[in-house]
Each structure stands twice: as structure tokens, then as C-alpha cells.
Design goal:
- The complex is a heterotrimer of chains A (about 425), B (about 550) and C (about 425).
- Chain A is α/β, with parallel strands linked by helices and about 425 residues long.
- Among the domains of chain A are: about 80 residues, Alpha-helical ferredoxin (Fumarate Reductase Iron-sulfur Protein, Chain B, domain 2, Orthogonal Bundle); about 100 residues, Rossmann fold.
- Chain A has 21 helices and eight strands.
- Chain A has a four-stranded parallel β-sheet, sandwiched between helices.
- In chain B, strands 5, 6, 7, 13, 14, 15, 16, 17 and 18 form a nine-stranded mixed β-sheet that branches. In chain B, strands 1, 2, 9, 10, 11, 12, 19 and 20 form an eight-stranded mixed β-sheet that branches. In chain B, strands 3-8-4 form a three-stranded antiparallel β-sheet.
- In chain B, helix 15 packs antiparallel against helix 16.
- The chains are: A alpha/beta (about 425), B alpha+beta (about 550), C alpha/beta (about 425).
- Chains A and B meet through helix 1 of A and helix 9, helix 12 and helix 17 of B.
């Protein structure tokens, strides 16, 4: 028996592998700007030992955690610090009674659905000074925030009208989890993906049922609803993977991370059987090129200088390499990789009035790096980083898929792939 | 009081031994109006008091083999819940039967508990798993008893504090070198002040030997022979709690069959080996002991197999030899109070020994009764009803969720009960954490240094839990050494104190230095030797272990 | 995914090797399991500080006398001088400005006030060339109120022991007082994030100028984020100002790590932060690819691989209940089989585990079952054959073996 013992110490979330080296505290963006938050070491492994002794040791300030996971990435001992904090919040019943504001921000699809129907009105209303004031005071959404514009036509609607019928004709197929942002705010990204995949000979298909992945629900403590929606998504993904044998592509790093890792770790929805079939489109495409199964041909006259920002959840997934390497394939693109910093928005966090200043302070280091890089645009795989960076730097921010689609010579690519 | 004045008083009673028995005796004597001096050769609670499970027995463990001890236990258990609330956590305990055990023993066990007055409820194994998820799921039987967890360091300090509040003097680092014996009568003790090397004599009308296993040596100094039965037990500390309740095996007591949740950790023990009396100061834990503890421990709670072991330690039970039982388990844990006037014709000298941490109060009562009989004092014993300092009615509780305490405040209340009010909390620096694992603040360190007889970092650890978390003092030991140096205006000693503390921590880590515990040790070495050069500043050769 | 070289581990040796290769046009990926032990570095590199308990004055001479199993001996004592100078230049190119000589150690001052032999020390940090000739007499030791990761008492005593007159001067500013509201987060790196703007530095400088008027030199805790900030504060303070290391995580180590990483990325290197190599595929005497936890079923293929995973603390070596092993490929290790032999009774005694590491041949190739793997070299703290804690040679071994491995890889092309 002795030889099977003590091989590794596997407590939940590896919390006792912590050597108290305190390295996590050097990367926490929240502790860097406020003394109200006890920092990842205290909130995570230190606090957990006491919470195991008595839940009375739960500290309400844990709600300030952005769940950006930078502590986990920095940890040399593999401790899932942010997961420890999230599960402590969940056990303590945080978010049982979420405010109207939190519920509204968390329900990105509900908000989107309403706004989308009345897009011109919503855009005007959400941008209007008196409305902002009401939001600031009554709903505690910060008045400095520009809500992302809502598209008049949902991506799903566009897809059904203009793209769906053509997809079956392609020799190979993928499914697409587009997420709320593509559906309601920025259908162009979805259209770019369809353009890119089609040029490589892949038909793109929507899931049977797609709901908001729930990343914002988790951050706002609405765990029950997140679980409900998560189960719907898990079923749809399982169906397309098992029945249609299609990989599920995504264009949002946060949705991807949530579907693959947070579903099992935080919501208790076991997606491990299909985890390897959910991936960012950049990884999927990189692999095809790496295995010499497809080719991309780019426009000859494309010239841009762009900085790549690794979103926090992207870094947690470790997949920035694929986006960066794909972008480096574009001949006219001068790409600068930025030192990884948090932009401060963290989904809906920065939208809340009480977090606005903190959010901007967190992002200031990144904004300075961007200014120093002297670029014309920023690339990132996260839509909320996009809002924050656009608002704070004035530079356009684009998803690598859109940049690829933009630089792509479609006809030459189709030919190179035998279409 | 200036130390020299302390030496010049003629005491009613001098208590030798700063374990919980000595502390409880000093308190009882003081509460009955006697002038008391307690002397301890090291720090308080460094012997068996600080080297056990921290288990507040219900008595169930002894019910089958020793009904008298069992009855004493349950009665003291109920008293301690009232008088020492801030030292006790009311966890309850399980006695589980595993497939390899004889289930018929359960009936014998429950009957014996009932005879001793211990509540023992047979519960369904499924219910046992529900209330204590860490328990071995293969169990075939479970009995619930009123076991609990108790902190012996706090308990000892609370007794000492109350003794002092009632006029007693207490001196640590004062070793008894000999007895003042005059015409067959013990009239005092010869002491070595280990902090300054001074030799002094102090007089007392009665001397109480409460020196535990070292009581045999003390008795010899008075020309009296007591034959102790040193039974050594080793234990392991895990990095965090895996269990909420005490878990025991429902069988005849054997190796490593008790798992106790103690504060932020849990402890498995013990082994039991008879050792020669000459070796009672050697507390090194062997590889064989570690193997036995782990192998047996995982039968109680399988998750121990993959939980980090942060320390190993050993203690020696001060049992009095009564037969030749080689296991040392079936001999009585009963209290032995020897009036050497009656037994050996030596006046003014009483030994209190045997017993258990659990029955320290009763031992104190018995020996104080004997002292009072000699001195003609007729005051009644009140220790069973008067709460210890920190545990008064209405004292704040760490479990109280209606109050918004900071982490440091809540942890301090858990350690000091109502006395936490003496810790300064009204400025940011006093509220700053020194030990982040255990929530020890600057304010708590000040309180301990100024009011709880702290001379070095190891003392500080026993009073506050500084450096008792999983990292065993990685960054906090340097912070605390520096702070203490400034408070005591003795920064010169700070480096040495730091090295001593790290050495004391390492002694416990070394027997279990694999996995994350070895990683922890390497990082500590990288910080204090590599980065700081502590090994270049301090010479540890030929140094005794720090107590 | 195909690279020229994949480096497992992301600390000092990995980055040094990665930079040396990327500079020569190689496609390099570094797989870093989180931040490295460089964050425990107080701003100095040590080539060789101590042999048989005695301080080394000339590392180059002492290295020539080291036993054969020492990594330096494997590199060849005659190459040390050249490699050391290459390492110094590489650090400078990365923006890490350090001073020192490989043929004469100087003394760095540790956070608890001990003088330890060092090869290179950040120019901004306080160091002493010779203990017999102090650079000045009277030091003003600036003590930040409420900052407990600088043990000022010990530091001052240590400096006095070296012959200095020391004034301990406690001060605070609004930013510092505000930070102390946090019971847990007043650390060197959190101070560094607050003391950035000119206004906040001016407030610090005002306090220094007010308190330290009589000093020859001002010592300030190493809580300044970068060279710009240090220069700004220096320009505001009337006396010469030097930094002294604090307890970790150290700002200087953090900064060195960031500068090296930045330089590596500028050279086109891929730094995979927070990922871990979990296994590798061996074909005959060559490693063909490694799999990481996050890249999953897309292994990293390369012509050459470098093992720079560090010692136990970084999990480059693992000690479990029964044995010491190398966790990725189960390479041959130099370690005692019996657990009792791993450690010694006293905490400050030389610990046997400090010498453990993977076995390598003369060309730093890792061995498996006694046979070298031709395209896998080990560098840095994962190497056996020396006790970095007692000898004060950890950073030197990391830098020099990294450069030697890079040279050897480039030579195979």
C-alpha cells in the first residue's frame, strides 16, 4: 500500500500544493488597484484552509475577484487559485439574490435579444445622456461606458437568410458556437469566419440550440441560470460532435474557456467527453495548415502594423500561440506581441459603476503598452477586451479571424484548396 | 515584578512543570488563596501537553479497558466545554468498524460507554458518511460519541493567565537543579535561570512535582523513587482538515487509530512504544513510525493518502508503571497522586502524575486538595465552574457570522476568546498580517510578546500559531523575528532567533520531507540561505534543540 | 507545431538559452509552468560564492579546481571566462544593467544584512567591492512604515557589523499609508505599482531629503518598478541613492524576468506562459516531440529540446514517498534511493537533496537508462553535481549552461 501513497497530493483545486511563494500576488490586477481585495493568496489557498475549518471565515470581498485567472497562470505550483475563489463564492451563496443590474448585465443574450429587435432605438437610447444617467444612478451601470452597439440583424438571421443554404455543398463541415457578441453586436465576425472557412472548403453550421455560454452569469454569481444554459449548450455540442462528427468552432476566447474548462470546474457540467472537439477557430485552422491539409493565400498589397493582446482567459487556455502564428503568416502584417496584462473589463465587471475606476486603473498598464507600440490596430480574441481597449485607447480592435478574412485572397485560396 | 523579587518570596506552594497539569494546579492553588510559584525548564507546554492529538476524549476510547478513566474523561469533557470554550471545538466523534474489524465489539463498546455515562449512538454507516464525508466508505458500523477537539497550548496559557490574575508567579526557562531538603523535609527548589545562567534558590512550604515523564528525575532530587513507564507516541499533521469530526476505530486501542481535526489541520496518531527513560528527550520521529501512521491512517480516511503531510512529532506519555504490559496500552491512565510524606517519609513534597491532558483539571484539584490539607487551607475548589480567562459567558466567538470581523480578528478570537479584546485593532499597522496562513497580526504579536511570556519565536508560535501553516514560516518567520527584535530592543538576537525557529520547524518537516513538503523546504532554503545568507550569519553547530 | 528548439521551463536558464538561439534566427518555444524562481532573486548573479564553507574571492580560479561532476567542469574551466562575458552582454542587451567581474567577486548585501560574494549586481543596487575599503561611512537606511518584508533591524545591525554608521529612518507617504490599509498586500511588488508617478516619487524624495541630510549615501528598499522610476527618484534625491534587496517576491527579480521575456519575444520567440510539458516521444536516441497540458493533442515538434525545468521547487524534479524522479521523461537522476539520506537533521546543514538532478554526459545531454538522448540537453537548476544553496553558484550555472547548450545546438546545424 505504501508505494501507492503520497505520490501526489490531490486536494480539490490543488490548493495544498501552494508553497505560499506569493508570486500570484504580483500579478493580481485587482489587488494592484484596491486594498479592499485581500489578494489571490489570501482569498484562495490561505482562506480556504480556514473556510474548511469554519465557513464563517468567508470574506465578502471575494466578490471583487475578476476571475481573470492570471494568478493561476503565474502559479508555479499548479494551484487553481481562481477556481478556489469561485467555488468559495458559490458555496457562500453569493449571487442568490442578484440585483436587477447584475441580472441584466449577466443576461447578455436576453439584453441582446431585446436591443436587437429595436436596434436603432436601443443604440440611441443606450447612448443618450439621460438614459446613461438613469443607468448610472438607478441601475449602477457606469455612465462613462459606451454600450456596445447592437446590430439591426442578428447573426443567426443573417446566416439563415444568406449563408445556410450554401453550406451543405462544401466537402467538409464544422459547427459554430457564435456566442452572444457575434449574434447581437457584431455579426461581421461570424460572417468573416464563414468566409474564411468556406474559402478553405469547410461548410459552417449552427448548433441545434445555442444559449449564452454563461461566462457573465458566473462572474455575477448567477450560478443556477448558468448551469441551466450550460446543460442546453452541452447537449447541443454533444449532438453535433457525436452525430454529425463535427468540431465546434468558436471565435471568443472567453466562451471557449467557459465551455471547455469552467463548465466542469465551476458549474459541475461534465463536458470532458467533448472538450477536445470545442476549439477556437484559430487553433483549428492552424492545425489544418500545419498538417498541410489547407492553404491560405493572402492579398499582395496588405500592409498593417498591429499589436496582439493576449486576453486573460486566452492565456489561461494557452492558445494565443495559434492566433499569433496565423497572423504572422500574413506577409504584409507587422505584428507586435504585447506583454500580457489585464485590460480591466473582465466581461461585465467594468460596466458596474462601483468598478469603473478600478477597471480603468487595472487597464492603464496595458493601454500604455499599446500606446508605446505605435500600431494602427490591436488584435485580440476576446470581445470584452475589444470594448475596453477601443473605449480607452481609441484604436480599432479586431479579432484575428476578421484580420485573416480581411487579408485573404478568397479566389486564390479557393483554388489552392481545390474548390 | 522584577525577577529577583520573585525569587525572594516564600511561597505556599512551588509547582514544578509548565505543562497543562502544572498550569491547572497553579491555577487551582491560586484560586484557593495560596501564594504560588510555577517553574518550567523550557517553554510552557513543551512536554506531553504540546505533543499529543489535541483530542478532547469523551472517554469512549477507554470505556472497555478502563471504566474509571472513561468516567473521569466524560465528566471533565463536560466541564471543559463550559470553562474552556475558546480552547474547545465541539466536533463530536465517530468510532467506525471496518470490514477487517469484529462488528460484535461494537456492542461491547456501546455497553461499556453507557456504563461509564458516555452517550454512544449506533448510527447507520450511510449516515456516518453523510455527516463525515472523509470517513472510509467501506465501514460496516459507526457509533457517535461526544469527542471533541481541544487546543492544549491555549488551554495551558489560559490556566497560567488565571493563576497569575490570582497572584501566582510563573517562570519559564527555569530548570530545577535540585531540592532544598532540610531534615527530611523539602523546603524549596534550586533553580537555573536558563536565560541568563544565574543559579537561585526559592523557598516554598510545599513542592508539587508535576513534571510529567521528567517527574522521575525530580523525585530523585528529593531522594524519592518513582518508576515511570515512558510510552512514546508519534503523530503526523496534515496540511488542512480532511475531517470535521474526530474519527476513531471501534476496536481495542491500537496504532494510529485516531484522526482529530485541530484548528486548521488534522492529526493522525499515535504509535505506542515503550522506551528507556534515558531517551525521553529524543523526539525524533523515525521512518517506521511515519510508515505505520500513514498505512493505518488511510484506513480511517482514505484521502490522507494524497493529502500533504506537513509535520511529524512525538511525545512521551507520563504513565506510571504498574505491570509488565509491553504494549503500554492496557495499563491504567488513572491519576496518581503521591504524598511522599506518607509514601516515603519526605515531608512537603507531592507528585501528581499519570492521568491525561483531558483530566488535567481533576489532577490539579486532587493535588491541590492534598496541598491544602497540609497547609490547613479549607477553601473549596472552584475550577470546575469558573470559566478560564477568554471563555467567560458572552465571550465573542469565531463562529459568529453576524459579526463582520477581519480575517485576523476572527482568527484571534478563535485563539484568545474574549482576551482578543486586548489586541490592538485601531490602526492599519496593528491589523497587518504577519503570518498570512494563520491570520496572525502585528497587534496579536505585540499582545503575545508583552503579556504571554514570549522570549523567542518558538514561544510566539505556541501562543499565536505564527508559522504553523502549511509553509511552516516561509516569509512570516523573518517578519516576526524582525518585529520581535524591535519590540524587545534586541535586534542582535533576531538572526539567531530566526535560525532557531527555522530549525525547530525543520525538525518536524524532515521525517515527512517528500512531495510538496520537500518543495516547501527547498524554497525556504533558497530564501533564507540563498537570498538572505542566514547560514553565513549564524553558527548552529553544537546547538541544543530550541524549546 | 514545428519549432527549431523547444525549451521546457521558463526561468533564467530557459530564457537565456532561448534568447541566444532566437538571436541566431531559430524558431524557439519556451514552455513555462508559471513564474520562475527568478522572482526570489534580489538583483545579483553568482558565479561561485563559496567552496568548503569559505568565501571565494576569484571565481575563475576556484572554478578550475572544482570536481568533475560540477556542471562548470563539464563545460570546461577554460570556457567559463568567455561564457561569463557572453552572459553579461546578453543581460545588458535585454536591458538588465549589472556590474561585476568574473575574476573578482564583490559583496552584495542581503535583506537581513549579510554580505555575500557575488559576480554581477544591478547597478542600481548597493554592493561593496572590498570589505576592507568601505565606499562611504554614514548610511541612511530608509524604512517604509508598515512594510514588513524588509527586516530593518537585522539589516541595520548587519551593516553596522561591516563598519558603517547607520541611521534607520522611518517614513511614509500618502500612497504608502493607503496601501497599508490592506492587511495582506503590502509587499515589495505592490509598493512598486504605487510608486510610479512623478508626484508620488517626489513625495518619497521629499521625505528622504528631509530625513537623510547627514548621510553619505541613502539606502532605499528595492521597491521601484523599473530603471526609469529609479532614475527619476535618484534625480530628486540630493544624496547618492542605492537600492537594497527585500524579502521576496522581489521587484528586481520580477523585473529581470520581464525584461528577459520581453527581449525573447522581440526576437520572435514564443513564450507559453502557464503551460507545462507533460510527456515526450522518444524515437531511438532522439526526442521527437513533447506534449503540453494546454496544447493537448497538438504536440510541439523540434530538432532540439532543452530541459530547463528547475529543481524540486519548480517541479523539474519530483520526490514522492518512495523515490526521486524526473517527471516528463523519467530521465536518469543522481539521487539517493533511501529517503533517510535525502536530508540532514539541522536546517542549515548541507542538504543532500540540494545536489540532486538529472544525469548528463559531458555535452549536457540527458541520459535515459544510461544512454544519452542526442537532441535533449539539460541546463540550470535541474542539473546535478553541485549544491547551489551552499556554493552560491545557482544563477551562474543557469546562465553558463544555457549559453553552452545554445552554442552546442547551433553547432549541430
Amino acid at each position: 500500500m505504501a508505494d501507492k501513497m503520497q505520490i501526489c497530493n490531490i486536494s480539490e483545486n490543488n490548493f495544498e500544493q501552494c508553497t505560499k511563494c506569493s508570486i500570484c500576488t504580483t500579478v493580481c490586477p485587482v489587488a494592484a488597484v484596491t486594498t479592499d481585495y485581500p489578494g489571490p493568496k489570501q482569498a484562495g489557498p490561505d482562506g480556504e484552509r480556514y473556510r474548511l475549518k469554519d465557513p464563517a471565515y468567508y470574506d465578502k470581498m471575494l466578490k471583487l475577484c475578476l476571475n481573470c485567472k492570471r494568478c493561476e497562470v503565474a502559479c508555479p505550483s499548479g494551484v487553481h487559485i481562481a477556481d478556489i475563489i469561485q467555488s468559495a463564492r458559490m458555496k457562500a451563496g453569493e449571487g442568490k439574490r442578484a440585483s436587477l443590474r447584475d441580472t441584466m448585465l449577466a443576461n447578455t443574450d436576453l439584453l441582446g435579444m431585446v436591443a436587437n429587435k429595436v436596434a436603432p432605438l436601443a443604440n440611441a437610447t443606450l447612448g443618450l445622456a439621460p438614459t446613461k444617467l438613469v443607468m448610472h444612478s438607478v441601475m449602477a451601470i457606469d455612465k462613462h461606458r459606451t454600450f456596445p452597439a447592437y446590430s439591426r440583424t442578428k447573426f443567426e438571421t443573417w446566416f439563415k437568410r444568406h449563408a445556410q443554404s450554401r453550406q451543405d455543398a462544401y466537402p467538409k463541415h464544422v459547427s459554430y458556437f457564435h456566442g452572444c457578441y457575434v449574434n447581437y453586436n457584431f455579426p461581421k465576425l461570424g460572417q468573416d469566419l464563414v468566409k474564411l472557412m468556406n474559402a478553405m472548403g469547410y461548410g459552417v453550421h449552427l448548433l441545434d440550440k445555442e444559449q449564452c455560454c454563461g461566462v457573465a452569469l458566473i462572474a455575477n454569481g448567477l450560478y443556477k441560470q448558468a448551469k441551466r444554459q450550460g446543460r442546453v449548450n452541452a447537449a447541443s455540442i454533444r449532438q453535433t460532435v457525436n452525430t454529425d462528427h463535427r468540431t465546434v468552432l468558436t471565435t471568443s476566447s472567453s466562451c471557449t474557456f467557459n465551455l471547455r474548462d469552467e463548465y466542469p470546474a465551476i458549474l459541475g457540467i461534465d463536458t470532458r467527453d467533448v472538450r477536445d472537439n470545442i476549439m477556437l477557430a484559430t487553433r483549428f485552422i492552424y492545425r489544418l495548415i500545419d498538417e498541410e491539409k489547407v492553404k491560405l493565400v493572402f492579398k499582395k498589397d496588405y500592409q498593417r502594423r498591429i499589436a496582439y493582446h493576449t486576453a486573460c482567459h486566452m492565456q489561461r487556455m494557452g492558445w494565443q500561440l495559434y492566433s499569433i502564428e496565423l497572423l504572422r503568416m500574413i506577409p504584409g502584417l507587422d505584428l507586435q506581441e504585447l506583454e500580457q496584462e489585464c485590460c480591466g473589463i473582465s466581461g461585465t465587471y467594468g460596466f458596474k459603476k462601483e468598478n469603473y475606476e478600478r477597471s480603468q486603473a487595472i487597464g492603464s498598464v496595458l493601454f500604455k503598452h499599446i500606446a508605446d507600440a505605435q500600431v494602427e490596430a490591436v488584435a485580440t480574441d476576446c470581445e470584452t477586451c475589444k470594448w475596453q481597449i477601443e473605449m480607452s485607447t481609441g484604436l480599432p480592435v479586431e479579432n484575428p479571424i476578421s484580420i485573416l478574412a480581411d487579408a485573404l485572397d478568397v479566389e486564390a485560396t479557393r483554388q489552392a484548396n481545390g474548390l | 515584578m522584577v525577577t529577583n523579587e520573585v525569587y525572594n518570596i516564600e511561597y505556599d506552594v512551588i509547582v514544578i512543570g509548565g505543562g497543562v497539569t502544572g498550569a491547572g494546579t497553579a491555577r487551582d492553588c491560586a484560586l484557593r488563596g495560596l501564594k504560588v510559584l510555577l517553574v518550567e525548564r523550557n517553554d510552557y507546554s513543551t512536554g506531553a501537553t504540546g505533543r499529543n492529538h489535541g483530542l478532547m476524549h469523551s472517554g469512549a476510547r477507554y470505556a472497555v479497558t478502563d471504566g474509571e478513566s472513561a468516567s473521569e474523561c466524560i465528566s471533565e469533557n463536560m466541564i471543559l466545554r463550559r470553562i474552556a470554550r475558546h480552547c474547545v471545538e465541539e466536533t463530536d466523534g465517530l468510532f467506525i468498524t471496518l470490514p477487517e474489524d469484529d462488528l460484535t465489539y461494537q456492542r461491547t463498546f456501546v455497553d461499556a460507554c453507557q456504563r461509564a455515562g458516555i452517550r454512544a449512538d449506533i448510527i447507520d454507516p450511510a449516515e456516518a458518511i453523510a455527516i463525515e464525508p472523509s470517513v472510509n466508505p467501506e465501514l460496516i458500523g459507526a457509533v457517535r460519541v461526544p469527542d471533541a477537539s481541544i487546543d492544549p497550548f491555549r488551554l495551558t496559557v489560559a490556566n497560567l493567565l488565571d493563576a497569575r490574575l490570582h497572584g501566582a508567579e510563573t517562570l519559564n526557562y527555569h530548570e530545577v537543579e535540585g531540592m532544598i531538603v532540610n531534615q527530611g523535609r523539602v523546603e524549596g527548589v534550586k533553580l537555573l535561570n536558563k536565560r541568563n545562567g544565574e543559579h537561585v534558590e526559592v523557598r516554598g512550604r510545599v513542592v508539587v512535582n508535576a513534571a510529567g515523564i521528567w517527574g522521575q528525575r525530580i523525585a530523585q532530587m528529593a531522594g524519592v523513587n518513582i518508576s515511570m513507564f515512558p510510552a512514546r507516541g508519534a503523530l503526523l499533521i496534515f496540511g488542512h482538515r480532511v475531517n470535521k469530526m474526530v474519527v476513531n476505530r471501534c476496536r481495542k486501542p491500537a496504532n494510529a487509530d485516531i484522526l482529530v481535526p485541530d484548528d486548521t489541520v488534522c492529526v493522525i496518531g499515535t504509535t505506542s512504544d515503550r522506551i528507556p527513560i534515558e531517551t525521553v528527550d529524543d523526539m525524533r520521529v523515525t521512518r517506521e513510525e511515519v510508515d505505520v501512521l500513514l498505512n493505518e491512517g488511510i484506513k480511517l480516511a482514505p484521502s490522507l493518502a494524497t493529502t500533504r503531510v506537513i509535520r511529524a512529532y512525538a511525545g512521551v506519555r507520563p504513565l506510571v508503571a504498574s505491570d509488565d504490559d509491553p504494549s503500554g496500552r492496557s495499563i491504567s491512565r488513572g491519576i496518581v497522586c503521591l504524598d511522599h510524606a506518607k509514601r516515603d517519609g519526605v515531608e512537603g513534597f507531592i507528585t501528581i502524575t499519570g492521568g491525561k491532558m483531558m483530566t488535567y483539571r481533576l489532577m490539579g484539584e486532587i493535588v491541590t486538595d492534598a496541598v491544602c490539607a497540609k497547609l490547613g487551607n479549607t477553601a473549596p475548589c472552584v475550577t470546575a465552574s469558573q470559566p478560564l480567562p477568554g471563555s467567560e459567558e458572552g465571550a465573542p466567538s469565531q463562529h459568529d457570522t453576524t459579526k463582520r470581523y477581519s480575517f485576523g480578528q476572527r482568527a484571534a478570537i478563535g485563539r484568545h476568546g474574549s482576551l482578543a479584546a486586548r489586541i490592538e485593532t485601531d490602526n492599519d499597522i496593528d491589523n497587518a498580517l504577519v503570518c498570512e496562513c494563520e491570520g496572525v497580526t502585528v497587534g496579536e504579536i505585540k499582545y503575545a510578546v508583552h503579556q504571554l511570556h514570549v522570549h523567542n519565536l518558538v514561544n510566539l508560535r505556541r501562543r499565536t500559531r505564527v508559522g504553523m501553516g502549511t509553509c511552516q514560516g516561509k516569509l512570516c518567520s523573518c517578519r516576526a523575528a524582525s518585529l520581535m527584535g524591535e519590540m524587545n530592543h534586541d535586534v542582535k538576537r533576531a538572526q539567531e532567533d530566526l535560525a532557531d525557529f527555522l530549525d525547530e520547524r525543520w525538525k518536524g518537516m524532515r521525517p515527512v520531507a517528500w512531495g510538496d513538503t520537500l518543495r516547501e523546504a527547498q524554497l525556504t532554503a533558497a530564501i533564507y540561505e540563498g537570498l538572505c545568507g542566514l547560514d553565513k550569519a549564524v553558527d548552529m553547530t553544537g546547538k541544543e534543540e530550541v524549546q | 507545431m514545428r519549432m527549431d528548439t523547444v525549451i521546457m521551463g521558463g526561468g533564467l536558464s530557459a530564457l537565456t538559452c532561448g534568447i541566444a538561439l532566437a538571436k541566431r534566427g531559430q524558431r524557439v518555444a519556451i514552455v513555462a509552468s508559471g513564474q520562475s524562481t527568478l522572482l526570489f532573486n534580489g538583483g545579483s548573479m553568482e558565479l561561485l560564492g563559496c567552496v568548503d564553507g569559505k568565501a571565494v574571492t576569484s571565481p575563475l580560479e576556484a572554478i578550475a579546481a572544482l570536481p568533475a561532476e560540477h556542471p562548470y567542469s563539464k563545460l570546461g574551466a577554460d570556457r567559463i571566462s568567455e561564457l561569463a562575458s557572453e552572459a553579461h552582454s546578453l543581460l545588458t542587451d535585454a536591458g538588465i544593467v549589472m556590474e561585476g567581474k568574473a575574476d573578482a567577486n564583490h559583496w552584495r548585501i542581503t535583506p537581513i544584512g549579510v554580505a555575500k560574494p557575488a559576480w554581477l549586481t544591478l547597478s542600481s543596487h548597493f554592493s561593496i567591492d572590498s570589505l576592507g575599503e568601505l565606499p562611504c561611512k554614514r548610511l541612511a537606511l530608509m524604512c517604509i512604515r508598515g512594510f514588513f518584508d524588509q527586516p530593518n533591524g537585522m539589516l541595520a545591525e548587519g551593516l553596522k557589523g561591516l563598519g558603517f554608521e547607520v541611521d534607520k529612518l522611518e517614513f511614509t507617504t500618502d500612497e504608502i499609508t493607503a496601501l497599508r490599509r490592506s492587511p495582506s498586500e503590502m509587499r515589495a511588488n505592490s509598493l512598486a505599482k504605487r510608486l510610479v508617478s512623478n508626484a508620488s516619487l517626489q513625495r518619497v524624495a521629499d521625505e528622504i531629503n528631509r530625513l537623510a541630510a547627514d548621510a553619505d549615501m541613502v539606502l532605499f528598499p528595492s521597491v521601484l518598478a523599473d530603471e526609469d522610476v529609479i532614475q527619476t527618484l535618484k534625480s530628486m534625491v540630493k544624496k547618492p541613492l542605492r537600492l537594497v534587496a527585500t524579502l521576496p517576491p522581489a521587484v528586481s527579480g520580477n523585473r529581470m524576468q520581464a525584461l528577459l521575456r520581453h527581449y525573447f519575444r522581440m526576437l520572435g520567440g514564443n513564450y507559453l506562459m502557464g503551460d507545462t510539458v507533460v510527456s515526450g516521444t522518444l524515437e531511438g536516441d532522439r526526442l521527437t516531440s513533447v506534449t503540453t497540458a494546454k496544447l493537448g493533442d497538438m504536440p510541439l515538434r523540434a530538432d532540439n529540446f532543452v530541459l530547463a525545468t528547475g529543481s524540486f521547487v519548480s517541479k523539474g524534479l519530483v520526490a514522492d514517498y518512495g523515490r526521486v524522479y524526473e517527471p516528463i521523461l523519467d530521465l536518469d537522476v543522481d539521487a539517493d534511493a533511501d529517503r533517510e539520506q535525502w536530508t540532514r537533521f539541522g536546517v542549515l546543514e548541507p542538504q543532500a537533496y540540494s545536489r540532486y538532478g538529472v544525469k548528463t554526459d559531458a555535452g549536457l545531454h540527458c541520459l535515459k537508462q544510461g544512454k544519452p538522448i542526442q537532441n535533449l540537453r539539460a541546463i540550470g537548476s535541474v542539473l546535478s553535481g553541485h549544491d547551489a544553496i551552499k556554493m552560491g553558484d545557482g544563477t551562474g550555472v543557469s546562465l553558463l549552461t544555457a549559453l553552452a547548450a545554445a552554442q552546442s545546438i547551433l553547432a549541430t546545424k
